[in-house]
Fold:
Amino acid sequence: MQQTYFSKKQEWRTYKIKEKSFQIEISQDVFPPSEWAERVMECLQVEKNSKVIDIGTGAGVIGIYAALLEADVYATDISSQAIKQSEKNANLNKVSMQYGIGEYFCDFQMKFDLIVANLPQEIIPTEYQIKPKLLSTIKGGMKGNELVLGLLEEAKKYMNKDTKLLLPVCSLSYYLETFRYMEERFSVRLRKVFEVKVKEYVPKYEAFYEELNNEGNIRIFKKNKKWHHLLYIIELQKK
Structure:
């Protein structure tokens, strides 16, 4: 089955979020912004001169949007190619960000006003043949929520009492387990829920996902004969 996540050629995409319009370049080596990123940006509330970190920046779209809103933006990613692409796109839009290559907060040692994290969090069948680089952009661990839980374990060190942590939670993972973890440790606010089409491997392994769905571990459903999952945009603060 064709794997369509990465662009096959260099291209440019234009975004308009609220009052801001901007353009980014999509390369063949960096996972392009998904619908998830757009939904997160729609929920962003960024104060001028606030300190914002974009974790898992990818092509840089969320960080660039925050910088256009005049925030002081930091961006991290485990991929050096992603960081290069994010910096290129920031320059294209005449904004600047500070960068770190590595997991989560990298070497940044400060409290942030806003933490945004758009992390891989889907469950991928072991039978699915996919290149490791591509797999790392979509797989969130055996339960899909491993990277999110790892972030939440680290996050409080970088939060003050007013810091907000905004992240999408995908129901193609053990999302209820993620919610329970959040509720035990943070004040939780549900900002929005979206219905999102699943990626192309889900129909191929329909029985695998239906079993997880029937067990109550994930939630997928058909709409207009197409499989969908839910995307929850969650805002967290310290209790």
Q: What stands out?
A: Strands lie at 11-17, 20-26, 51-55, 72-77, 98-101, 112-117, 159-170, 186-197, 220-223, 226-238.
